[in-house]
């Protein structure tokens, strides 16, 4: 199977991709509309923020338990069930509005329920990708997923704002419908059954994923890089908006600059397979970190939107390959019976650290100004790059430059047929992720699996 045609030749991944793309676009529609709806029914800015915070806190608290469920239960049924729960939750908003009963408490409950369902959905979807995509096609598959997510993030808020002007409830109706379509597509997707591991060998602890990560040297270095750049990125968003506003830029100019980040992400996701196949992981991280450090240093010297926008495109362009390298490595190298908990542990570390970025940026801008804040962020990116990527220059376990290997792992080449994945594996045959060719356990690995969709509160 040629990786360039994975959407055409792999029907199970095509269903997953369509499901993810539609539901992510639906969530992006309501992402902007949710706080606007809170305000439109008489809520305060603090109440709008509380709704988003409750959704985020719920997802954070349920990350580790969600990973354990995904490791032990039917992943497809988890995904379909949580899609249906989110459909009902989002559809309750138009229903309550039509009955004249929509209020702050109702929206808060929707945010919590949706956040919980999203937390359960994500690790199950991570494992499902590994089920339906052979190892040699993972880079292409993750690139296509990131391209779809970048496209949705770019057009979703604009489309959601437009729908809100037509009817404040319309974005939520469309979002609910996207969950319904997603569930129907996932019902037809084949997945491998949960792997049977003897009770004496199974680690049932919630923290099993975290414990396993601590023994992976290459993974920890890559995770340090990704987490560091995530913090810098989150801080840069706040710094960008505040510094542009302080320089007198209007809302239209600021929006255009921020849209450049979406354009860079979209282009970067499309180019990622080409870059990854030609650059080992260590060199890729070094390149990305260097571009980030130089780009942030440029921002310290100007507040002109016409300069910042193109530079931002270049900076963000190099970010998707890092996420794909990390996601691919964890999908390939994590033991199957721990994959759900490893993915949620990684997500917990990444999201927890990144959440500190905006707070730190606001404090720095208030105390020392935008220019010095940009220099601090540029220095932080440089330090993270040197500390984490240099040790990876001699590491090969994370590389995806040789994606053209065997097809006998996780998914089979199915041509254009709609045949589902086999539900059984011959007795005694180890799963490809369980044993290396020489019979030993795989040694290297890495972080951050793809986030199939964002929640109502923005994840």
Q: What would your notes on this structure say?
A:
This protein has 459 residues and is mostly helical. The chain has a single domain, classed as MFS general substrate transporter like domains (Growth Hormone, Chain: A, Up-down Bundle), CATH 1.20.1250.20. Helix content is 70%, strand content 0%. Helix 4 packs antiparallel against helix 7, helix 9 runs antiparallel to helix 13 and helix 11 runs antiparallel to helix 16. The protein is globular and about 60 Å long. It starts with 5 loop residues before the first helix and ends in a 70-residue tail after the last helix. The C terminus is likely disordered. This is MFS transporter. It is a multi-pass membrane protein. Keywords: Cell membrane, Membrane, Transmembrane, Transmembrane helix. It is found in: Cell membrane.
Topology overview:
Layout: H1 6-9, H2 11-40, H3 45-72, H4 75-98, H5 104-132, H6 138-166, H7 170-187, H8 208-213, H9 217-246, H10 251-278, H11 281-299, H12 305-317, H13 319-333, H14 339-354, H15 356-368, H16 370-389
Helix pairs in contact: 2-3, 2-5, 2-6, 2-7, 3-5, 3-14, 4-5, 4-7, 5-14, 6-10, 6-13, 9-11, 9-13, 9-14, 9-15, 9-16, 10-12, 10-13, 11-12, 11-13, 11-16, 15-16
Domain Major facilitator superfamily (MFS) profile: 1-397
Pfam family, one: MFS_1
Biased composition (Low complexity): 399-409
Provide keyphrases for this structure.
459 residues; Growth Hormone, Chain: A; disordered C terminus; 16 helices; MFS_dom; mainly alpha
């Amino acid at each position: 199977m040629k990786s360039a045609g994975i959407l055409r030749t792999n029907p199970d991944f095509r269903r997953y991709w369509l499901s993810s793309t539609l539901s992510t676009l639906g969530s992006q529609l309501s992402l902007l509309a949710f706080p606007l709806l809170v305000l439109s029914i008489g809520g305060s800015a603090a109440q709008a923020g509380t709704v988003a915070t409750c959704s985020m806190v719920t997802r954070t608290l349920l990350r580790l338990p969600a990973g354990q469920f995904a490791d032990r239960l039917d992943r497809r049924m988890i995904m379909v069930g949580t899609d249906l729960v989110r459909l009902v939750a989002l559809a309750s908003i138009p229903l309550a509005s039509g009955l004249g009963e929509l209020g702050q408490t109702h929206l808060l409950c929707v945010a919590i329920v949706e956040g919980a369902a999203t937390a359960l959905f994500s690790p199950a979807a991570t494992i499902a990708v590994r089920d339906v995509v052979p190892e040699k096609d993972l880079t292409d598959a993750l690139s296509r997923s990131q391209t779809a997510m970048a496209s949705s993030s770019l057009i979703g808020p604009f489309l959601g704002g437009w729908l809100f002007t037509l009817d404040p409830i319309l974005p939520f109706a469309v979002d609910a419908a996207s969950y319904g379509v997603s569930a129907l597509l996932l019902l037809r997707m084949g997945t491998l059954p949960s792997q049977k591991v003897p009770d004496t060998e199974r680690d049932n602890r919630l923290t099993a994923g975290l414990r396993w990560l601590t023994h992976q040297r290459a993974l920890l270095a890559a995770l340090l890089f990704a987490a560091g750049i995530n913090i810098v990125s989150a801080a840069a968003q706040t710094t960008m908006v505040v510094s542009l506003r302080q320089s007198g830029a209007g809302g239209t100019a600021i929006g255009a600059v921020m849209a450049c980040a979406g354009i860079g992400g979209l282009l970067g996701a499309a180019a990622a397979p080409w870059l990854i196949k030609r650059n080992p992981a260590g060199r890729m991280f070094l390149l990305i970190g260097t571009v980030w450090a130089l780009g942030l240093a440029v921002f310290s010297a100007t507040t002109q939107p016409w300069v910042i926008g193109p530079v931002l495109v270049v900076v963000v362009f190099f970010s998707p390959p890092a996420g794909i390298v990390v996601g691919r490595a964890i999908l390939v190298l994590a033991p199957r019976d721990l994959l759900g908990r490893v993915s949620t542990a990684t997500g917990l570390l990444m999201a927890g650290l990144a959440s500190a970025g905006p707070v730190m940026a606001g404090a720095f801008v208030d105390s020392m100004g935008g220019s010095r804040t940009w220099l601090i962020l540029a220095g932080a990116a440089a330090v993270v790059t040197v500390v984490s990527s240099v040790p990876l220059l001699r590491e090969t376990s994370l590389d995806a430059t040789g994606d053209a290997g065997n097809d006998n792992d996780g998914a089979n080449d199915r041509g254009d047929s709609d045949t589902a994945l086999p539900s059984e594996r011959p007795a005694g045959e180890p799963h490809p992720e369980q044993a290396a060719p020489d019979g030993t356990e795989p040694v290297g690995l890495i972080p951050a699996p793809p986030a199939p969709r964002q929640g109502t509160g923005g994840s």
